[in-house]
Amino acid sequence: MSDAAAEVLTQRPVVYRGGGFAPSPRRWVGFAVFFILIFLAEWGTRSGWISALTLPRPSDVLETFQNLYATGLLFKHLGPSLSRLFMGALVGVTSGVALGVLIGLFSYARAGMVPLVAAIFPIPKIALLPLFVIWFGIGEGSKYALIAFGTFTPTVVATYGAVDNVDRTLIRMGQSFGLSWFSIVRKIVLPGAMPGILSGLRISLAIAIILLVAAEMLGAEFGIGAYILEAGALYDLERLFAGVVILSILGVLVSAAVGFVEHRLLGWRV
Fold first, then answer.
1. pLDDT of residue 94
2. For residue 46, how many C-alpha atoms fall within 13 Å in the half-sphere facing its CB?
3. CATH pick for 62-265 out of 3.30.980.10, 1.10.3470.10, 1.10.3720.10, 1.10.1780.10
4. Among residues 59, 111, 128, 215, which is most buried (max CB within 10 A)?
5. What secondary structure letter does DSSP report for 165?
6. Using CA atoms, how far apart are residues 156 and 228, in angstroms rounded to an integer?
7. Rounded distance between C-alpha atoms, residue 140 and residue 218, angstroms
């Protein structure tokens, strides 16, 4: 091989193949999907291909949403819903994470609590709403309790599963370096379990929104669930879909908030 050919080979750039499976952001795709679906719904309802008794025009739903904002009813319904969602989910998630970590770390807690959680987890939480009304009254207490209980069990399962999935080699390495039990938990176990905990948190908060609507359909004057129930009773599809859109936006914002926390706490992952 000549010196010139050897120099060309040595100067050829090497393609980096260690990028893993990190997804690259394509935010415009999501907006495009939403735009196409809304366009098809608008075109279908205006052309008569979709019956107005089946699906309202997106433009009419937008007009209803604007009227809600202009009259102030949007915040009258949204404020109580956000308060119930925040308080109920806060109690359920914090207690669920705490119990899940205890189950993952201590054998006696695992032996005593896992069968109980396994027995409670399959129970439909909406079916317990009348029981919570008897215990806590028809006011805010029963709504907080339903949301807290509904988010508690999936958070427990996700948390102790995430703790179990922490690489034991890292724990043994910490023990070999003489780290204390608290240091191993704080520096190895909790950071290693955090991805699984946050994934469970997404599911728990989605369940919280579902239970919020169910709770507000019973004995609530204001709230997104009460608004949807009233619109459904009057067969007002525009108002009904406006309430559904509010719930969808709320779900997207909650998911974005969890994603922001995940980005800040899990920035160490490559």
1. 94
2. 9
3. 1.10.3720.10
4. 215
5. T
6. 31
7. 11
